[in-house]
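tool=predict chain=A
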Amino acid sequence: MNEQRTQHEATDWTQNREGIRNFFDLTAWQKGRELVKMVYEATRGMPREEIYGLTSQVRRAAVSIPSNIAEGYGRGSTNDYLHFLRTARGSAYEVQTQLMLIADLGMLRHDLVANVIEAAQRCSQVIAGLIRSVESYKRREDSASAPRKPNSKQRMPNPECRMP
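tool=predict ok
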């Protein structure tokens, strides 16, 4: 169901496909929310002295993902939406990097971190699909509002010809 929904969602973000009425219905937002839960659960085992360091930083980056998707959706402008989706995707990459550092530093088990990194990768892929969809919509929107050029076979009026 989620794969089918993602395909429909990637077709055109403005249409009400599969019941998308608000950002709650976006697969990207849902994946981001799931990732936040996974990050919080995983980081409960972090050393106490990291509460204001990597623990806080990776949690904030994770929370940023669904928050930016929601904020962009609510802005009402395609350009703003794209900006916030790209920020959300960047935050997903940030989460992946910070989790790798956490594993490298031995603060959490590699297998635990690997599962969360995979979830972050899936989340960033879904966001990337949504970005492509919105960009495609924007191109169609821009071309529909652009002034039409005359057909090359149409005769252009001769500016030297004056009406009496």
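Residues 2-9+24-141 form a domain with the de novo design (two linked rop proteins) fold (CATH 1.20.1440.60). The helical segments are 2-9, 27-43, 54-74, 78-104, 110-145.
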